Amino acid sequence: MPTNDDLLASIDAQRKENGFRTLAETMELTARGNTVLDPFSTLISVHAKVGTGNTFYPNSVMRSDKNDAITVGNDNTFYAQTYLEASGGTITIGSNNQFGPEGGVTIKANSPDSTIHIGDYGRYLGGVTILGKSTLGNGAQILGSITFQNASLEAGGSFTEQDPDLRAAVAKGRGLIRNQAIQQGYVAVLGEASTSVSILPQSHFHPKEN
Length: 210
Known about the structure:
Helix content is about 10%, strand content about 40%. The protein is built from two helices and 21 strands. It has helices at about 5-15, 25-30; strands spanning about 35, 45, 50, 55, 60-65, 70, 75-80, 80-85, 90-95, 100, 105-110, 115-120, 125, 130, 135, 140-150, 150-155, 170-180, 180, 185-190, 195-200. The longest helix has 14 residues, at about 5-15.
């Protein structure tokens, strides 16, 4: 009958074969101030560069095929069902972002020219998929089951900014946004019944106080 050491060695062997950190290497991230709530279900590539203060919930994955193809800053939260893949391209994430918890988040730079850049203080939840050449500036938000491809959200204040005109761009709803640039202070709104994208000022949803 296999011993506990045999089982752990088998788990680590499979992780190594697929380019992920071993259990011990995953837990080494906690020595730098990161929190890994369940190392058995958390898979982080040996090539990923991870900062400090990040929190990894169970069933979060970072897959990468080369050094520094995934770079993560500090104090981000990766909820369950967050999946990052840099297989050919690069993913750069700043600090203080929230990925999930609703519906999972998928971020894939899976072609040679794909570069995904995510700034600071963003929120991404509700079944988001980010692909291609996409830039999400500081404070940006994608809320809902949206596929965001080769597009950008302009930087600005986070969702806590009191003046909606100064907030970063937002995408919300359900559908596809491709090859579009959303400006600061605006929201790209998608509805289930239509494939069109409506661009509205954020003050439409958050009226300014007099």
